[in-house]
């Protein structure tokens, strides 16, 4: 229905920055970093993965705040 479409569009607008932030780097470390901020795991990764950069961490943190997850 029209209401469902409007709600989906609102939710998509909130989540797009979060989706983008998960792929700023080419490895899954941004996802691991976000999960660690949410208390789901530790931020450490094992090789061949590498830790996220400080810039990526800022992007992820901002996206989590924008999505009202923090």
Number of extended strands: 0
Q: Which parts are unreliable, with pLDDT below 50 for 5 consecutive residues or more?
A: none
> Average pLDDT, to the nearest integer?
91
Counting DSSP H or I runs of 4 or more residues, the number of helices is 3
Rg, rounded, reads: 14 Å
Largest sheet: none
Strand content: under 5%
N-to-C order of helices and strands:
HHH
Helix content: 55-70%
Structural class: mainly alpha
Detail the topology: elements first, then pairings:
Elements: H1 2-21, H2 29-37, H3 54-66
Helix pairs in contact: 1-3, 2-3
Provide a descriptive summary of the structure in words.
- This protein is 60% helix and 0% strand.
- By secondary structure, the chain is mainly α.
What distinguishing features does this structure have?
70 residues; 3 helices; mainly alpha
Short description:
With 70 residues, the protein is mostly helical. It is built from 3 helices and no strands.
């Amino acid at each position: 229905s029209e209401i469902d479409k409007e709600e989906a569009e609102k939710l998509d607008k909130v989540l797009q920055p979060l989706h983008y932030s998960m792929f700023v780097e080419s490895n899954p470390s941004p996802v691991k970093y976000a999960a660690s901020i949410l208390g789901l795991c530790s931020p450490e990764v094992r090789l061949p993965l590498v830790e996220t950069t400080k810039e990526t961490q800022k992007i992820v943190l901002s996206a989590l705040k924008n999505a009202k997850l923090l």
